[in-house]
Design goal:
- This protein is an alpha/beta fold and 291 residues long.
- Helix content is 41%, strand content 15%.
- The strands form four sheets. The protein has a six-stranded parallel β-sheet with strand order 2-1-3-4-5-10, sandwiched between helices.
- α5 (159-169) packs across α9 (274-290).
- The chain is globular, with a radius of gyration of 19 Å.
């Protein structure tokens, strides 16, 4: 039986959950199975499988390293996405491409709408925006860009798992309190990608940009305190500190909250509030971190 979905980057934090949500309907390809920077391999794989939907979870996600290695990051986040979009156009399938809040400058005071003008301030953001534009240019009727932010899950390292570890090893922890965003569980995003793909193949969801981040917003400090609370630990052990205390090569957006109007326009529910998602995810996160 031919698989209806193909997932690139299937070995990553998000890709694992997307494959798990899709089950037997999908073939998942990790980096060893498909190098998305090889246009010949990309075209051959899509011609062989001829899926109805491709979900691209492959990405260069080393935000700080991209500042000094932008050309390498662009190859994965920009050029390779063009290869995928070209191959999808040839096969006639949909492409759901996962992007990021970093395409915005982070200087807003209200949630960024899906049609807000991008203005990345980092190399990572620039490379991801290049990928977005390739999808929208080459697949105007079958291309979907799904921006997300602050991902966490059981399938790899992330901030929430780091805080779970810190609670058991440190008396207190200092966490940044001047960057605001939307903590997003990878399983929730995978569920929304599945719903969007189904609606798109049925002709109910228009192509374009969607925001796949959780509802509500928080600072890293607030997220850390909620993590400690769910562990039964005193949230007061988390201390607030400014971002300048942790200088990094890539500037972090001060405000990267995303709006979700396009989901409602497509007749779909956006991801739930981040607190509800974190509570639902927590048992699996603790199990993944502490075994």
């Amino acid at each position: 039986m031919r698989k209806r979905w193909l997932v690139t980057g299937a070995g990553g934090l998000l890709g694992r959950d997307v494959v798990a949500r899709l089950g037997a309907r999908a073939v998942g390809l990790d980096r060893r199975a498909l190098d998305v920077t090889d246009p010949v391999a990309v075209r051959a794989v899509l011609q062989a499988h001829r899926p109805a939907v491709v979900v691209n979870c492959a990405a260069w996600t080393a935000v700080d390293a991209a500042e000094s290695r932008e050309r390498e990051a662009l190859l994965v986040n920009g050029t390779a996405v063009r290869y995928l979009a070209e191959a999808c156009a040839d096969v006639g399938c949909l492409l759901l491409h996962v992007s990021t809040d970093y395409v915005f400058g982070g200087d807003a005071c209200v949630p960024y709408a899906e049609d807000a003008l991008p203005g990345p301030r980092t190399a990572y953001g620039r490379t991801k925006l290049t990928g977005e534009r390739a999808v929208l240019e080459l697949l105007p009727e079958r291309g979907y860009v799904v921006r997300t932010a602050w991902l966490y899950g059981g399938g790899g390292g992330n901030f929430v798992r780091t805080m779970i570890r810190a609670e058991s090893t440190r008396e207190s922890v200092a966490v940044v309190d001047d960057q605001r965003g939307q903590p997003t569980w990878t399983a929730d995003l995978a569920d929304r990608l599945r719903a969007l793909g189904r609606a798109a193949t049925a002709g109910r969801a228009p192509a374009g940009v969607y925001h796949g981040s959780s509802g509500g917003d928080a600072t890293w400090y607030e997220l850390a305190r909620e993590t400690f609370r769910l562990l039964g630990a005193a949230p007061e052990r988390v201390r607030a500190t400014p971002g300048t205390a942790f200088p990094r090569p890539a500037a972090r957006p001060a405000y990267s909250v995303l709006g979700h109007d396009r989901w409602h326009e497509a007749g779909l529910e956006p991801p739930r509030d981040w607190r509800d998602a974190l509570a639902a995810a927590f048992p699996s996160l603790v199990s993944a971190e502490r075994g």
